[in-house]
Amino acid sequence: MSGRSARFRIRSSMVSQDQDPLPRRIQLRTGSAFEDRAAYSRALRVGNRILVSGTADIGPDGVPLHEGEYDQAVAAIALALDAIRRLGGRADDVVRTRVLLAADADWEGPVRAHGEAFADINPVNTTLYVHGFIPPGVLVEVELEAEIQPS
User: Fold this and answer.
1) Which positions ≥6 away from 75 have C-beta within 8 Å?
2) Does residue 15 or residue 36 have the better pLDDT?
């Protein structure tokens, strides 16, 4: 993926309520300034669930690394799946995907990329158009949800 070296921080915490602990929360953060500014994690594992926030093909300078819809989708899916792996999941644990497209984006490339990545998994999916993304130039953003099955 264009020689990108992502830095990730994993933070774990136990939250309790009335002496009954909730499932452990493990946060995956990339170190992006926007994560701190908006107070969110790239991904979060709570118990057996892993949720990956909107993931786009953006370099450290805030500019998309690829120009076309298909290439951006392939890269975004790969980054989101990497987040799931870092939190102990696998691609076949993915149960829901969301593909968000910029208003002027063509849907066929991202749908093809999704089909290639999830052909044997067939998670539920929502693909929709949005007004736009931060930063400009992003055409595709991907969200994933995974449920880790006990061995």
Assistant:
1) 1, 2, 57, 65, 66
2) 36
Strand order in the sheet with 9-13: 9-13, 25-29, 43-46, 49-55, 140-147, 94-102, 124-130
Per-residue confidence (pLDDT) for residue 36, from 0 to 100:
84
- In order of their start, the domains of the chain are 9-147 (3.30.1330.40)
pLDDT (0 to 100) of residue 31 = 81
Beta bridge partners of 49: 46, 147
Q: How many CB atoms lie within 10 A of CB 141?
A: 24
Largest Cα–Cα distance of the chain, in whole Å? 51
Rounded to two decimals, the pTM is 0.85
Question: For position 10, what pLDDT does the model report?
Answer: 64
Q: Return the half-sphere exposure (C-beta side, CA atoms, 13 A cut-off) of residue 17.
A: 3
